[in-house]
Specification:
By secondary structure, this protein is an alpha/beta fold. It has a single domain, classed as Alpha/Beta hydrolase fold, catalytic domain (Rossmann fold). Strands 1-2-4-3-5-6-7-8 form an eight-stranded mixed β-sheet, sandwiched between helices. Helix 2 crosses helix 3 and helix 4 crosses helix 5. It starts with a strand and ends with a helix.
Length: about 280
């Protein structure tokens, strides 16, 4: 379905027939260059007590890609997510985010503590603390943004998925379909996302995530050393978190090992329901 928020059309993947106040909503948020379609594999596997749905973030998939970069900063994206949640009249929600989508989920949770009942964060960082490192990341992402605008989305996607971060994806039978889908993204949308929602521009949440007194599931791939080590540390910053590592996976564990990823998520959700924590 399409939802208009302040003149911008957002694409939402949801089963209208299952919308019920008796179900616990869980919003899946994709990563950079992704879309709501990335989560189709898991939506029908979620326990019936929950209402899973997904969104195309601004500048991605079938959602609009406005030229003004102000719509892509952290505050704007958090407000857009809040408008979606408000539209469906959800009082409490579980957020599940991958990579950039995890940063969105964290940012939203820290602004709306009262609305989030649990978090699932895959290959997610709470931000960069070092000032110089933040500057380098911003500069790097600005260069990538210009590359997208100058060379086109297709060339960028070919480059992006040839980085070590996604090395395991190449072994998948549907790898070509994965990258072809991402080539349909709007260059302005992707470039503006890098310019305005770079990890270097995002506030560091290391000293704030302890405020989240909700159950948290952290998932990383064993071959993604940086994020696995970072999440090992993150686990102790949260008040109630567990960290699951998917063996032989790199950054995008849900595409590389969908069955294992799904099992971890279902196990987490069933425990939530059984413990009355949501």
């Amino acid at each position: 379905m399409k939802l208009n928020i302040d003149g911008i059309n957002f694409n939402i993947l949801i089963d209208d027939s299952k919308i019920s106040q008796n179900k616990i909503p869980i919003l899946f948020i994709h990563g950079f260059t992704g879309s709501s379609d990335d989560w189709e594999f898991i939506l029908n596997s979620i326990p019936s007590d929950f209402l899973p749905f997904a969104i195309d973030l601004i500048g991605h998939g079938k959602t609009d890609s406005p030229k003004d970069s102000k719509y892509y900063n952290c505050s704007s994206i958090v407000n857009q997510i809040n408008s979606v949640i408000t539209f469906f009249n959800f009082k409490k929600i579980i957020l599940a985010g991958y990579s950039m989508g995890g940063r969105v989920a964290l940012s939203y949770s820290l602004k709306h503590l009262e609305k989030v009942s649990a978090l699932i964060l895959e290959s997610t960082t709470p931000g960069i603390e070092d000032v110089e490192e933040k500057k380098k990341r911003v500069e790097h992402d600005l260069i990538l943004a210009e590359t997208i605008l100058n060379d086109g989305v297709e060339n960028f996607i070919e480059y992006w998925f040839n980085t070590p971060l996604f090395s395991s994806l190449k072994t998948l039978n549907n790898f070509l379909q994965i990258i072809e889908k991402r080539k349909t993204n709007n260059p302005i949308g992707l470039a503006n996302t890098l310019k305005s929602f770079s990890t270097g521009l995002m506030n560091s949440y290391w000293d704030k995530i302890g405020l989240l007194n909700v159950p948290v599931l952290l998932i990383t791939g064993s071959r993604d050393k940086k994020y696995t080590e970072q999440n090992f540390i993150m686990k102790n910053y949260f008040k109630n978190a567990q960290h699951k590592i998917i063996e032989e996976a790199t950054h995008n564990t849900h595409l590389e090992k969908p069955e294992l990823f799904t099992n971890f998520v279902i196990e987490f959700l069933n425990k939530l329901k059984g413990s009355n924590e949501i």
